[in-house]
Amino acid sequence: MHDTTDWTEKYRPCSLGDIVGNTSAVRQMYEWAKTWTPQSKPLVLYGKPGIGKTSSAYALANDMNWEVVELNASDQRTKQVIDRIAGSSSTTGSLSGAQRKVIILDEADNLHAHADRGGARAIVDIIAHSRQPIILIANDYYGLAKELKKVTEPVQFRALQARSIAPRLRYICSAEGIACPEEVLAAIAERAGGDMRAAVNMLHAAAIGRETLQAGDIHTGEKDERSTIFDLVAAVFGKRGDEALLKVSYDVEDTPDTIEQWIEGNLQHMPDFASRARGYDSISRADEYIGRTYRRQYYTLWRYATALMLLGVADAAGGHGIHGRITSPERWGKMSRSRRQKAIRTELLRKLSRETHTPQSTLREEFFTAITLLVEQDPARAVREFDLDADELTLFLHDKAAAAKVVREVAKEAKAAEKKETASRKKTGKTKAETDPPKAPEDAKRPDVSSGQSTLF
């Protein structure tokens, strides 16, 4: 009987040379590591689960003699946690004698849940100040926060071909002393659907307690492959038959109303306006059934909605295929932007309220227009007085580029003043406490300005 050690860990590649498939991605990673400087962008390894992203990151670290610091989904990835774990690691050297430390953030496309609030921005801040290499790993590149995409370099991992998986399975069988016919290895490789981890797990499950494997021994290890919404949208525009298309929809976990929004959001891939009009007609008919489902709580109608939208849009597309990127529903983006604007406005009112000692409701209802006029006259002063960021200043100026420029200039001025002060202290040999002006006694303070009150008005 063979041991029950996890074979995916036991046979995890130790070097990039052991990685199966994805040659161009592996080469891109190696070139990045070989030429890495603190100015280099972090990598984002993305692709389906089980195709070697995490293994490649660890293999690269091993090849480069880099220490690994990993932060994954099991951690509560708030801004504070990310700053504490990855932040400190990104600016300090290795204690083990390794040449560098590489920060690996797994499941980077899951930085949107409540537990991760502030996480994406924290990672961007860490990237900006990091003196160590950083690798992010994601299953869905389009699910990655927009601010992370701007500051990273993408590396795509593709599903492995069955003929690439089979030799690795043969090697494992040899190492474990298991006799396994080539046709059985080929069957496992095919059923894995490009997922090396699933293939190894299937082989392990079938091999427990056996010295020889036959075709009938692998059915219990078959992969439970679920289609994603991306697979379904691609199938609608592809050349699948009606039965095959509906089968893909059964494997997708999303409900018909969500599927409808995804298909609608990608109708721009239709070959012409006439096809798009027919597609919209099918979606509108499906939407009627979805509405009746919710009104009557009769969920049997969902199957009619699904058939109408999928088969109708597929017929309109005529197997044209998708020549571009599958995008998430546009309305989701609008809702997200609306929530973000509301959060920025709330934080801005909180700052103004704290600095002016005025209730937020009063500021919002009575003084916001007057404050806007004052900020427009001297936006740099407003940034200094209220510690505004570019998003908050944009609410006043309605010009994103101008707001960003003002914030950058104020930050540059503050940095220059700090350098000048530091140089002055070094020249005189005095500490900061000795050079700072003495604080005025309480009775000498201006009676008409309370502590902490802004002087903008």
Automatic annotation (TrEMBL):
<comment type="similarity">
    <text>Belongs to the activator 1 small subunits family. RfcL subfamily.</text>
</comment>
<feature type="domain" description="AAA+ ATPase">
    <location>
        <begin position="39"/>
        <end position="176"/>
    </location>
</feature>
<keyword id="KW-0547">Nucleotide-binding</keyword>
<feature type="compositionally biased region" description="Basic and acidic residues">
    <location>
        <begin position="412"/>
        <end position="424"/>
    </location>
</feature>
<dbReference type="InterPro" id="IPR047854">
    <property type="entry name" value="RFC_lid"/>
</dbReference>
<protein>
    <recommendedName>
        <fullName>Replication factor C large subunit</fullName>
    </recommendedName>
</protein>
<feature type="binding site">
    <location>
        <begin position="47"/>
        <end position="54"/>
    </location>
    <ligand>
        <name>ATP</name>
    </ligand>
</feature>
<comment type="function">
    <text>Part of the RFC clamp loader complex which loads the PCNA sliding clamp onto DNA.</text>
</comment>
<dbReference type="InterPro" id="IPR003593">
    <property type="entry name" value="AAA+_ATPase"/>
</dbReference>
<feature type="compositionally biased region" description="Basic and acidic residues">
    <location>
        <begin position="431"/>
        <end position="448"/>
    </location>
</feature>
<keyword id="KW-0235">DNA replication</keyword>
<dbReference type="Pfam" id="PF00004">
    <property type="entry name" value="AAA"/>
</dbReference>
<keyword id="KW-0067">ATP-binding</keyword>
<feature type="region of interest" description="Disordered">
    <location>
        <begin position="412"/>
        <end position="457"/>
    </location>
</feature>
<dbReference type="Pfam" id="PF21960">
    <property type="entry name" value="RCF1-5-like_lid"/>
</dbReference>
<dbReference type="InterPro" id="IPR027417">
    <property type="entry name" value="P-loop_NTPase"/>
</dbReference>
<dbReference type="InterPro" id="IPR023935">
    <property type="entry name" value="Rep_factor-C_lsu"/>
</dbReference>
<comment type="subunit">
    <text>Heteromultimer composed of small subunits (RfcS) and large subunits (RfcL).</text>
</comment>
<dbReference type="InterPro" id="IPR003959">
    <property type="entry name" value="ATPase_AAA_core"/>
</dbReference>
